[in-house]
Write a structure and sequence with these properties.
The chain is α+β, with helices and mostly antiparallel strands and about 80 residues long. It has a single domain, classed as His-Me finger endonucleases (His-Me finger endonuclease fold, 3-Layer(aba) Sandwich). Helix content is about 20%, strand content about 10%. Strands 1-2 form a two-stranded antiparallel ribbon.
Length: about 80
């Protein structure tokens, strides 16, 4: 007996605008908003304060729900250990 192949729904992500990125970086002042250190070779990365899978925003990005993190802090949010 053949079962139908499940249909995967792909939703296009809404990009963070250049103006919003500039506002977030200006708010951070060139440092990580969590540990307040200067970024390493990975630079600063934008991250959700509340992950989208845990009830964070899915349709639109608000400045109050985004933070600017260094690579180490952003990796620790995702359970990745720093190996350097």
């Amino acid at each position: 007996m053949m079962y139908p192949k499940p249909v995967r729904v792909h939703r296009k992500r809404i990009a963070i605008s250049r103006a919003q990125t500039e506002r977030l970086l200006a708010r951070a002042g060139g440092r990580c908003e969590r540990c307040h250190k200067l970024p390493d070779f990975r630079g600063l990365q934008k991250s959700h304060i509340t992950p989208k899978g845990m009830g964070g925003t899915k349709a639109e990005y608000l400045d109050s729900e985004l933070e600017v993190l260094c690579g180490v802090c952003h990796d620790s949010d995702h359970g990745i250990r720093d190996v350097l």
